[in-house]
Amino acid sequence: MKHTLLQACLLLLLSLLAGPTLGQTGGSVGIGTATPAASAALDLTSTSKGFLPPRMTVEQRNAITNPAAGLSIFNTTSGQLNYYDGKQWRESVAVAADNTSVPTGGTYTYTVPAGVTSLRVELAGASGGSSVGNGGRGGLVQAQLSVKPGQVLYAVVGRSGVQGPIKQGGGGIILRTTDNGGSGGFNGGASTMSGVAGGGGGASDLRVGGTALANRVLVAGGGGGGGYYLNSTGGEAGGSGGNQTGATGLYHGALTGGKAVARRRAEKARPTIIPTG
Fold first, then answer.
1. pLDDT truncated to tens, each residue of the chain (277 aa)?
2. Which domain holds residue 6?
């Protein structure tokens, strides 16, 4: 009875003050709608206005006594929505930032979300281009990286070496071409020195504090390009990191390839960045 009376008083007060469309159905209160959603205690509907939560500094937020799980405020200190998870206050972070992958063949930036101090990073180097023999697959590096909120990371992603005898460069950037050979992949893949061998795959790396080579903190080597002639040498592999080297390209007629650390082709080679805390 008291609950119903309180809802009625609230509806009357809102109608006197603002005059928007109000509604009450089955215990649900609607503002801006005469038919509030049945699963909502309060349904706010508008196409021109937003919902404004309580705004306070982090000190004022921390002074709230016994906050309920799910309690939300706007933190004016950090400029972020905060919610209480039952144990501690947390920053609300966009879902897209929780598990971010970047495309193959290029340099991309990643800004560490608010409240995140550690990232789980997976780097996969690109595979080498194939000829008669198959190109080697790239190396794989997995690591936990300490970061700071707002820090900018640079993901440089390798792309596969081009199959001979095509003269197009891997990753859209031609490092070097021969008359008939395949070109190396983006980010350090070697071009072929023989006429029709595949180019080496490009390495994938993560850089902190800038885009120079000296800023690299993680590197996954690219795979070597495939050879053409019987027992010929495949293309050179891209740079390695932490002994996670790319595989040597197959020779024509060989039964087995080199040391492949990763088991993914270059088209799927991409860093995956997952905030962990």
1. 545 555 655 555 555 455 556 666 667 888 888 888 888 788 888 888 888 889 998 889 889 999 898 899 998 876 778 888 888 887 664 433 444 444 455 677 777 777 777 777 776 666 666 555 555 566 666 777 788 877 877 777 666 655 555 433 222 222 222 233 333 333 444 444 445 555 666 667 778 888 777 887 777 666 666 555 544 444 444 333 333 344 444 433 232 222 323 223 333 344 444 444 4
2. 1-48
* Whether this model's pTM surpasses 0.85: no
Looking at the structure, do residues 156 and 250 belong to the same domain, yes or no? yes
Neighbours of 211 (CB within 10 A): 12
Question: First-to-last CA distance in the chain?
Answer: 45
Domains in the chain, number: 3
**Shared-domain flag, residues 153 and 110:** yes
Q: CATH code at 76?
A: 2.10.10
CA atoms within 13 A on the CB side of 254: 22
Residues 6+ apart with CB under 8 A from 191: 175, 176, 177, 178, 181, 182, 183, 184, 199, 200, 235
In whole angstroms, what is the distance from residue 90 CA to residue 143 CA?
25
116 and 102 in a common domain: yes
Same domain? For 84 and 32 the reply is no
Residues 99 and 164 in one domain: yes
37 in the same domain as 61: no
